[in-house]
Amino acid sequence: MVEVLKTQIQSGASPSRIIALGWVHHLFECLQDQMASHIDVLFPTLFRVLSDPSDEAVLLVLQVFALISTSNRTNTDRNYNDYFTKFIIVLMDLFRTDRPLLEARGSFIIRQLCMLLSPEDIYKTLSETLANEPDTNFASIMVKILSSILLTSTELYDLRVKLKNLQTIESADLFVCLYKTWCHNPIALVALCFLSQNYDHACTLVQLFAEIEVTVDFLIEIDKLVQLLESPIFTYLRLALLDVENNQTLIRALCGLLMLLPGKTDAFHILRRRLECVPNFIDKFTSVDKRIVNLSINTKENGTINDSRKNINFDELQQYYLSIQNKHVDSKRQRYRYAPTSDGL
Question: What distance in Å separates the CA atoms of residue 27 and residue 68, rounded to the nearest whole number?
Fold first, then answer.
């Protein structure tokens, strides 16, 4: 029966393929133990369906992979089996070789996976897979897609909350894991620091943009980030601007982004108007003593809330970021070196 279903998936018409995929899903759902021996046979066939124009077919395949990933776990400490990691690796290989699929379906596939499985596990595994990606351009594109999903999708709300608060060692480890992959895309990395309220480091990164080649694509990404900063997701960041004393680095980071934007763009005017709302004075009715007391209370509270941040070595992360950016520079030089000239030489 499995061979018949495999044949229908490979060569059948679209309706037949969807019916066959439905049966495969049903079999894995009801007969996991019996279907385990057929996983390796079906795996390549199912993967090819991800390029199918039918959203229904793609969704069925992802549902099957979700069932495969959670079946017959040999290690009870993990949520998924080895097929989960294999699936993520092969998915990245597919995206790398099929850029039209990545552009057309990449976001859809990742979002659906986050609905079917744990978004945190999806993002950690994707980050670990991309960490040693030799194709720096592909890594940058993937990080841009992952960052956009992280900052906009309702499916990733819990993950955003975890990264925003960083209240546990596990959440700090997650931040570091994402950080090392997000280094492939500087604007996405700044957005991650904004999301996690690491404003000091965000300011440092923006200052390092002076060493980056500012391209049109780079400016477009800043433009999109400015639009995101005006969304409900970053309400807490905008309110933090009211606390001028304790958020100087946040203000400087935003001013740095403003300085990078062309003066005639909408994003420039949006960010400028937002910064013009920042109080540039301290309430004259607040006594100096009261301000000192409030500052000490805030510091004590921040020390309690941000304990996990103390475990993050930002100096080390900054050096890692610079090393990744150097790889991007070297990669660009190689592309320019081997790019054909206009005279064909």
Answer: 11
Comparing C-alpha atoms, which of 200, 190, 277, 173 is closest to residue 225?
Answer: 190
Q: 280-326 pLDDT, tens per residue?
A: 744 433 433 444 344 433 444 444 445 578 889 999 999 999 999 99
Residue whose tokens read 């923006």? 206
Q: What is the mean pLDDT of the chain?
A: 86
Helices and strands (H and E) in the chain: how many: 19, 0
CA distance 252 to 197: 14
- Residue matched to tokens 């992959």: 181
Burial code of 120-129, b = ≥16 C-beta within 10 A, e = fewer? bbbbbbbbeb
* Per-residue tokens: 70: 């959670």
Write the Ramachandran bin of 72: left for phi over 0, alpha for psi from -120 to 50, otherwise beta. left
What are the structure tokens assigned to 57, written together? 């077919």
Angle at 56 between CA 143 and CA 1, to 5 degrees: 115
Q: What is the pLDDT of residues 156-192, one digit of tens each?
A: 999 999 999 998 999 999 999 999 999 999 999 999 9
With beta carbons less than 8 A apart as the criterion, state whether 5 and 20 touch: yes
Q: Which tokens belong to 111?
A: 């979002």
Picking from 223, 154, 144, 226, the residue whose alpha carbon sits closest to that of residue 181 is 144
Distance CA 79, CA 278 (A): 45
Higher pLDDT, 162 or 27: 162
Is the pLDDT at 118 greater than 60? The verdict is: yes
Rg over CA atoms, the chain: 24
